[in-house]
Amino acid sequence: MFYEPKNGHGLPHNPFNAIVTPRPIGWISTRGADGRDNLAPYSFFNAVAYTPPQVMFASTGAKPDRDGTKDTAANIRETGVFVVNVVSFVLKDAMNLTSGPWDKTQDEFALADLEKAEAQTINCPRVAAAPAALECKVTQIVDLAGDHNTMVIGEVTGIHMDDTCLKDGLFDVTTFNPVARLGYKDYSTVRDLFSLKRPGQD
């Protein structure tokens, strides 16, 4: 099968997200200029550079109470900072609950009964139970083609790791099983690992 997205695919559901998988989930926490906290997951997310460490995520769609965007992007435009919280398997239901189209006044930490911890390099909350969290300062906000598509790029200024996830000096994802987004309503988790050496590596 071949299709051009501009002409449609003719399938019951859009296959695009199912093709580009698995995708890590950036569980983004923000604090608005008014002091209200927000937490929402984004599956258009990834790390994009080592030095300095940088990440990106894209917000798609809009809420009627946010004038053409979503709470996360609106807060970031106001403050210029955010935290990426890593989603472990045990946090999957809380993450899913925070994905709802809640009113901008709703604190999703409270909604999902999640303990907050304060970031150290920025004024922003993080998920205390997350196995890792990345404190970020915005470097670019890019308006993408299409309606309400916004990409945010941030430099990582602080990194939190749960000490129980460190094994022999390595951050071991099998200790918490990160959750990944697939297509449709599907998710996956990392349980099995294998290693490959690049050509020329010892």
TrEMBL record:
This protein's superkingdom?
Answer: Bacteria
Q: Where is the Flavin reductase like domain?
A: 18-173
Q: Which InterPro entries match?
A: Flavin_Rdtase-like_dom (IPR002563), Split_barrel_FMN-bd (IPR012349)
Q: Which Pfam families match?
A: Flavin_Reduct (PF01613)
**Gene Ontology molecular-function annotations:** FMN binding; oxidoreductase activity, acting on the CH-NH group of donors, NAD or NADP as acceptor
PANTHER family assigned:
BLR2425 PROTEIN (PTHR43812), FLAVIN REDUCTASE LIKE DOMAIN-CONTAINING PROTEIN (PTHR43812:SF2)
| Protein name (record) | Flavin reductase (DIM6/NTAB) family NADH-FMN oxidoreductase RutF
